[in-house]
Amino acid sequence: MPQHLPEKTILTNLVMVENSDTKKVLLENRRNKNWAGITFPGGHVNSGESFVESAIREVYEESHLQIENPQLIGVKQFMYQEHVRYIVFLFRTNQFKGTLQSSREGDVFWENPYQVKQSQAVDDFFDLLQIFKSYDVSELYYQDYEGQSIKRVE
User: Fold this and answer.
1) Are 108 and 32 in contact (CB under 8 A)?
2) Which is nearest to 98 in space by CA: 45, 32, 41?
3) Contacts of 22 by beta carbon, 8 Å cutoff, 6+ apart
């Protein structure tokens, strides 16, 4: 009988901050060479930190905006290494205050996300956008079968 070993996890978040007045969302042009391009602000969950606290902190660190009431609306996940699962909690809010300011992580700006060009965005930007904007899907899951990557949006 196969033994089920516990997985280690890497916990992160991405947050879509919507500006109700302009119908634009907060985007970031990330400088990280491992995941460069236009995406949503976010980052790692610190040890002992709640997921909501981490989302609020990450948006503040990357944009200087103080968000309120972020709602968990989905998850992205994939196996990062053998027995290590990478989980990204996807939050959405339209409540914020402060003055937008970029950070060393990348340049932040307000934009209609459907105006972003595929060539400028991170690889799964439009899959993430589908989850952020939809009430029908809540999970983006990457699987690897026999060396072939398979993406499921559910």
Assistant:
1) no
2) 41
3) 110
Sign of CA dihedral 35, 40, 43, 45: negative
3-state SS, residue 87? strand
What tokens does 81 get?
A: 């290494």
* pLDDT single digits (tens) 116-149: 999 999 989 999 999 999 888 888 888 765 555 5
| pLDDT tens digits along 20-65 | 999 999 999 998 888 889 999 999 999 999 999 999 999 999 999 9
**What's the distance, CA 50 to chain centroid?**
16
Q: Which residue has the tokens 């060009």?
A: 117
Residues 6+ apart with CB under 8 A from 11: 44, 45, 51, 54, 87, 89
SS3 37: strand
Q: Domains (ranges, CATH) in the chain?
A: 8-153 (3.90.79.10)
